[in-house]
Amino acid sequence: MITAAALAFLASVCAVGAWRLVRARWTYRAPHVAIVLWQSLGVTWGLAGTGALLAYALEPYGRGVLHGLGAFAASAVEGGYDPRGPYGLPQIFALIAGLSVLTVLVVVLLTAGLQTFRARRRHRTLLSLIARKDPGVPGVHVVDHPGAAAYCVPGLRSQVVVSEGALKLLSPDELHAVLAHEVAHVRERHDLVLLPFAALRRALPWSRTVRDAQHEVALLVEMAADDAARRSCSPRRLATALLRFGTAGAVPTPHGALGALSPSSAVMARVQRLVSPGPRLPRRVRYGVVVFSVTLTASAPLLWLVPH
User: Fold this and answer.
1) What is the DSSP code (8-state) at residue 303?
2) What number of other Cβ atoms are within 10 A of residue 164's Cβ?
């Protein structure tokens, strides 16, 4: 019972932490660090929540969740009755619930990843037919569309795309800033950061906390790309480019891609941050959050191994 209680407590800590982190604003001062913390909370919550149910159900085996699952699987294959196995309706219900939740989380994550991969493959095929090269923007795919659009298609064969409307809308400096933003998305693989939260949203569409978490992580990803872009361009140019996109009515970003205005509802927060940046989070605080995140992420797997 101690392991199950510890895992349940850990899952509740992650849930409360996510609820509070949605409302925190120090995250805007260190988006990369905040992203690490968000990933830690998500992974730990999933492992701790399912682990608590399984630890309770498999307590009679007495050697941890992983060993209990192995022993239960072996007894199920052999078809014999194991007196050490789960007993009573509460344990059986907990075992079914734990395995079901774990299966749903894994399947939803794999399904979301597969659907995103297919959408990107279809979009790359489409770009090969309709996009063109422009010597003014080397390495970028240009689409002849009057609307303003700028986005990247991440992956092993990543692509940065702009529309003809965006080329006419933006000045050269603003265009350079937007392209630097998209390149940052590709280089830092922000798509992999967003994928687990999109999958969790599919698994728990009714959860307001999950919805807010997905929105907050999407905003932090954009801020992280803004920070990377500002190293090679003027932050004010990027801010004016975002405002131009917003007033021009930017074209929606295709599924599986990352656009400069995702999420569009938080553009003004990004513009304000670019124009009037606040002080950076102190280094000791950033390191402390990273160490806490690593420790938190490692705690749930370790508890899966601890004997009951």
Assistant:
1) H
2) 17
Structure tokens at 55: 């630890």
* Cα 260 to Cα 76, 268, 275, distances in angstroms: 52, 13, 17
Distance CA 61, CA 52 (A): 15
- Per DSSP, 61 falls in state G
Phi, psi of 37 (to 5 degrees): -65, -40
Q: How wide is the angle at C-alpha 13 spanned by C-alphas 190 and 206, nearest 5°?
A: 65
Q: Which two tokens stand for residue 50?
A: 């399912």
| Total residues found in the chain within this entry | 308
Listed in sequence order, the residues at least 6 apart from 233 whose beta carbon sits closer than 8 Å to its beta carbon are 173, 176, 177, 180
Cα three-residue angle 55-58-64, rounded to 5 degrees:
60
φ, ψ at 136 (rounded to 5°):
-75, -20
Q: What's the rounded Cα separation, in Å, for the pair 132 and 174?
A: 21
**Per-residue pLDDT for the chain (308 aa), expressed as one digit of tens each?**
678 888 999 999 999 999 999 989 899 999 999 999 999 999 999 999 999 998 888 887 767 787 777 777 777 666 654 555 556 778 888 888 999 999 999 999 999 999 999 999 999 999 999 999 988 888 899 999 888 889 999 988 889 999 999 999 999 999 999 999 999 999 999 999 999 998 888 888 888 888 999 999 999 999 999 999 988 888 899 999 998 887 877 677 888 888 877 666 688 889 999 998 888 899 999 999 999 999 999 999 998 887 76
Those residues whose C-beta lies under 8 Å from the C-beta of residue 110, and which sit 6 or more positions away, are: none
Q: Give all strands (DSSP E) within 23-68, no chain letters.
A: none
DSSP, collapsed to helix, strand or coil, labels residue 250 as coil
